[in-house]
Amino acid sequence: VQLQASGGGLVQAGGSQRLSCAASGRTFSSLGMGWFRQAPGKERESVAAISWRGDSTYYADSVKGRFTISRDNAKSTMYLQMNSLKPEDTAVYYCAASLGRSGTGDARMYDYWGQGTQVTVSS
Questions:
Q1: CA distance 72 to 115
Q2: Mind listing the pLDDT tens digit for each residue in 74-96?
Q3: Is pLDDT of 100 > 90?
Q4: Backbone angles phi and psi of 66, in degrees to 5
Q5: Contact call for residues 58 and 115 (beta carbons, < 8 A)
C-alpha cells in the first residue's frame, strides 16, 4: 500500500485545514485508517482513526470536537478536517493504513505509513 498525504501548510490559529491521504496498491475499502502527528521534540501521537466502512471512529482527547475524520472508499482517500486550530496542533501529520479493519489509535496496529505533511499553526 502506498499512501500520499497532502493538504498541509501554514494557517492562523482558529482557522481550518483539510488533510487528504490517497491510497493505492491494495483495496482501500478493506483497510482501517488513521492519522498521527509528531511535533518537534515530541513523540508521535495518535490523532484520529476510522474503520474500513467508516462506521467507527476514534479521536484523541486533544482534538475531539475540532477534528473530523472521514473516508471515501470510491476515491481511495481519507480526510482529516481540522477546525479551530491551535498552535499546539503544529506537527507533521502522517496517515497510516492497517490490515485490520477497525480504526485504532494504537500505532503498532498499522502496517503502512505515508510520508507526512507539515501543518503549522501560527498564533
A1: 20
A2: 999 999 999 999 999 999 999 99
A3: no
A4: -115, -35
A5: no
Distance between terminal CA atoms of the chain? 37
Closest residue by Cα to residue 21 from 39, 36, 10, 40: 36
Q: How far apart are alpha carbons 92 and 28 in whole angstroms?
A: 23
Cell numbers given for 2: 502506498
pLDDT of residue 25: 83
Q: Where are the beta strands (DSSP E) in the chain?
A: 2-6, 9-12, 17-24, 32-38, 45-50, 57-59, 67-72, 77-82, 91-98, 112-113, 117-122
Q: Are 43 and 88 in contact (CB under 8 A)?
A: no
Instruction: Report pLDDT for 55.
Output: 95
Kindly tell me the number of DSSP H helices and DSSP E strands found in the chain. Answer: 0, 11
Residues 14 and 104: their CA atoms lie apart, in Å, by 27
- The CA-based angle 53-72-111, given to 5 degrees, is 65
Q: Name the phi and psi angles at 117, rounded to 5.
A: -135, 135
Report the C-alpha gap between 37 and 18 in whole angstroms. 14
Residue entry with cell 470536537: 65
